[in-house]
Design goal:
Shape: flat
Mean pLDDT: 83
Helix content: 25-40%
Strand content: 25-35%
Radius of gyration: 25 Å
Number of strands: 18
Number of helices: 6
Number of domains: 3
Structural class: alpha+beta
Order of helices and strands: EEHEEEEEEHEHHHEEEEEEEHEE
CATH class of the largest domain: Mainly Beta
Largest sheet: 6 strands, mixed
Amino acid sequence: MSWEAAERLPGAHSDGAFRSSAEPVIAERRGLRPLEWLRTYWRSTPELPFSRVVQHIVLTPQYVYVRRRDGTLSRVPRDRLHGERRERGQVVYGVYEGEDLLLSDRPGCAVQSRLSEQTSGGASVASSPWTSFDLARPGMLLSLMTGFFSAVLLSNYPLARTLDYIEAGFATSETALGTYLGLGMAALTVALWQWSPSRWHVDRVGLTRRRGLIPWLSFEVPPERIDRVLLTPISGRYLGERSRRVGWTVSLLFRSPTRVGTLFNVRQVTLCRFNRLRNLGDVQTQWPEHDAEALASRLRGLLDLAETERGPRRRSSRRG
């Protein structure tokens, strides 16, 4: 682990295991302002909970010292930091083999300026974050069907009439059962809306997946848990032609099974599909291999991965 326990922050007057008082302080930030407190509390996630927000941070030439809201005091070598992500009033700095560093975004902060210069120095267009929205058509089609049946059932079996039946002791009448089924389908529709679509975001901090039309579940995978980018050819048969290569999928292969917005641990996730003849994903292109390789190269640069691996051919499920 990159983080290690510290007994005090640089500048303290008591003796400590790291002799922190002898370390020169480059920049320092104390406390959370009221608005920052509310913002970080409201936008906390399981990966970055509110209790781990930094309250006091000190930079020295070699280390970053932090005191978090839960009272823990620790430090990490500055060369273990990688990448910066600013969003929704927060800034996250990636830490190799350790918990990411979460700060409330504060304009004009000397600490942020120093860390931003270190982690984002020399950034180019190729290293700019990559984002994509996956509508998950099968799930959305199913949600339209369940929403339609829910509307039909609730119009034929109104909730007000069902409440009257329940009050009269007929909780299992046809009307009540129809209302129960309609409400269940309505709940399933909302669940599909808030689970099927995904927003993918890849930057130097790692891979992020947010579930839902209105994002509410966020899942993070750091770069050290990602092994390589995988390019898999898609084969298909259109208009009576022989089966041939029609596109490519771009995926990320994990070092070990990982749960990233999935019901079970998976070894890889598909981020994008490129198809020459028809749109199988969120991109339509005439040169699928060129565009797929360009995306793979961009992902390798962001996540600092090795060469792209080409996987076995995948058969397209769509026919002409």
